[in-house]
């Protein structure tokens, strides 16, 4: 199976948001996060190969929905006005924070 390019992924996210609307997709994000939460809890209670695969599956669902969330956040038609640069800046800020927690900050 051929992989999707970043551009193709964003086009798909755009088509999904256009088809179902941002409000519905925001609810689906919550639903997928809950499914991931449930999969992790289930694996912690009774670990198995199947429960580990389920975590991976639900993590991918959340990842795809996060792609749509970032599309929504950068689309003024959805009522949000963040730029991709704003998001990238926030990612770097949070990664720096994580690095500080791991290594300690000056
Ligand atoms: Mg799911």
Care to describe what's here?
This protein is mainly alpha-helical. The chain has one domain. It contains four helices and no strands. Helix 1 packs across helix 2. It starts with 5 loop residues before the first helix and ends with a helix. The mean pLDDT is 96. Magnesium ion (MG) binds next to helix 2 and helix 3.
Relevant terms:
single chain, 106 residues, mainly alpha, 4 helices, binds magnesium ion
**What structural class is derived from the secondary structure elements?**
mainly alpha
Sequence stretches where pLDDT stays below 50 over 5 or more residues: none
Helix tally equals 4
Helix percent band: over 70%
List cofactors, ions and other ligands.
magnesium ion
Oligomer: single chain
Cα radius of gyration in angstroms: 17 Å
**Shape, principal axes of CA atoms:** globular
Number of domains as seen in the coordinates? 1
Number of strands: 0
Largest sheet: number of strands, sense, barrel closure: none
Tell me what portion of residues adopts beta-strand conformation.
under 5%
Mean pLDDT: 96
The ordered string of helix (H) and strand (E) elements is: HHHH
**First-last Cα distance:** 47 Å
